[in-house]
Amino acid sequence: MANRQGSEDGERPPVSSPQDRAVYIISVAAELAGVHPQTLRIYERKGLVTPARTAGNTRRYSDRDIERLRMIQRLTQAEGINLAGVRMIVEMASELERMRRRVERLDRDLEQARRYAQEEIERVRSSRASGGEIVPLSSLHRLRRRLREAEALGRQQRRMAEIMPPAPIPVGPGEPEG
Asked: What is the CATH number of domain 3-81?
């Protein structure tokens, strides 16, 4: 039905609840918010509210838009904040909402990663309990035996080098010099 135009940053939350459905025409929205329709047009030009648009380019406001309009009225009338200040507050509130949604997404991802890690831990534990090993013990014994053999061979080669000096290097035909 209604299509949301993007805000300045191009990001709009998806229509996820009845509160986000843009159903009110400008005259009804103005009456619900307690302002004149022309004031809503000014707020839109100033970037304080971005109503959805129908295929015929008619503005449509949601309950969330009405709440925002009431907040703008309260800030300007009761608190004496000018529209530039209200705009900053609205932008910070929008950023805060985006951050909340991101934190919720990250929390869900973290919880999923925790569940996966716990499942992997349980899988490894169950395979170890049933006799399975992460590194088979027989492989470890073979590795230790090969290391001992390599160390012994190295010791033997060093002893041989001490006993027998290196042989002279032949330089030409015949017998080596020396």
From this structure: 1.10.1660.10
